[in-house]
Design brief:
3-stranded parallel β-sheet, 4-stranded mixed β-sheet
């Protein structure tokens, strides 16, 4: 069998080069070194898969098309997981957690469907967004900005704030479960909270929902 260049072994070769480069030049935080633990195993698995394909699939063109299709499916799956919602929060706030509570009847719908790759949503003054959408219909990634346009993604000398996912869970009211996601806003690049913080948050959310009187 004559080993030939294919989409998979070309990509795997690039991943190996990237992982070696990251090990030699890991950067000030050493993150590049992680390529040896993530990129290199993927590259080795891909080369084994490619070798098996070249040995068993007859016809170089057929193999090439199959690998193009496989790479396309993997790339689509990766991009699908990168779909991002952008939350716009008030410039002046008195809350630490941004929360979305799902499946609340008669609440607004999120601007999302199967073809949605990104959307923006303004967060209410209390930091709690109610929606009639189910949690599994929402986009997986999250970004945050203030109304003035300050980004919580790129902490710098001007914006010493960041955010991170704190909880994805359920709260129960009158026998009905409501899924929610909560993000903590914090300073100095750290996201710190305790289990008691989450419990207190959930109690506040329950009281808020009862005041709103959601119906099932």
């Amino acid at each position: 069998m004559k080993y030939k260049p294919t989409p998979i072994n070309i990509i795997c070769g690039l991943l190996i080069i990237a992982s070696i480069y990251g090990a030699i030049f890991p950067g000030p935080m050493g993150f590049g070194f992680l390529g040896l633990f993530y990129l290199l195993p993927v590259a080795i698995f891909g080369l084994l898969l490619d070798y098996l394909g070249q040995k068993t699939i007859k016809g170089y063109r057929k193999l090439f098309l199959i690998e193009i299709g496989l790479v396309g499916v993997i790339a689509f799956g990766f991009l699908w997981q990168e779909r991002t919602k952008t939350y716009i929060i008030p410039d002046q706030r008195d809350f630490e957690f941004v929360v979305t509570i799902y499946d609340v009847k008669d609440s607004e719908q999120l601007p999302v469907n199967f073809f949605t790759w990104t959307y923006e949503k303004e967060i209410p003054e209390n930091g709690v967004l109610l929606t009639s959408n189910k949690i599994n219909s929402d986009l997986p990634k999250t970004e945050m900005f203030t109304k003035a346009g300050l980004s919580f993604q790129d902490r710098n000398d001007t914006v010493d704030l960041c955010f991170g996912r704190a909880s994805t869970s359920k709260i129960e009211i009158d026998g009905k479960n409501y899924d929610y996601q909560a993000w903590k806003i914090d300073k100095e690049g750290t996201i710190s909270y305790s289990s008691n913080d989450i419990k207190e948050l959930e109690e506040k959310l329950k009281k808020y929902l009862k005041r709103k009187k959601p119906s099932s």
